[in-house]
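The protein record quoted in full:
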Amino acid sequence: MKKGKVLLADSHQNMLAGVRNLLENMFETVFMVADETSLMEAAEKLAPDLIVADLSLPVTKEVNIARRLKKAFPAIKLIILSVHDERTAINECIEAGASAVVLKRSAVDDLMPAVTSVMKGLTFVSPAIADANKKSPKAVGQGTE
C-alpha cells in the first residue's frame, strides 16, 4: 500500500514528469515544484516524508540545495538528482546531509532503490558514481549506513 508524501523539485518539466511517474508507485501523494523558492515554501507547508531535488536548482546563499534544505529542515530525508558524477560534487551533497545521490541518466534504474534505502535510514549513491570513483579513497558507496 502506498503511503506518505514526497516533494519533487526540478526545473526541467520532462524530468519532473518522468520522476513523478516513478514516485507515484511508492507514495500516496507527489508534489512537484520547479524552482528553489517554491521548494522551500512547499517543504515548510507540506512537511513531506521525502524530498527529491535537482542539485542544479539555483541556490541563493548556500553552496548547494542539499545544504540549504538540511539547514532549514534538518530531519528531512533528502535525495539529490544530479547530472554530475564527480566525487567532490557527490561528497559535498552527502556531507551536506543528503541521504542519496542519484544520477539523472540512471534515475529509471536507481531511484526506487534509493528511495527504499533512504526510507530505511541508509544512504545510496548511484552505482555508476561509485564505479567512476572506485580509485578514490573518499568515494561514497552504495547502500551504506
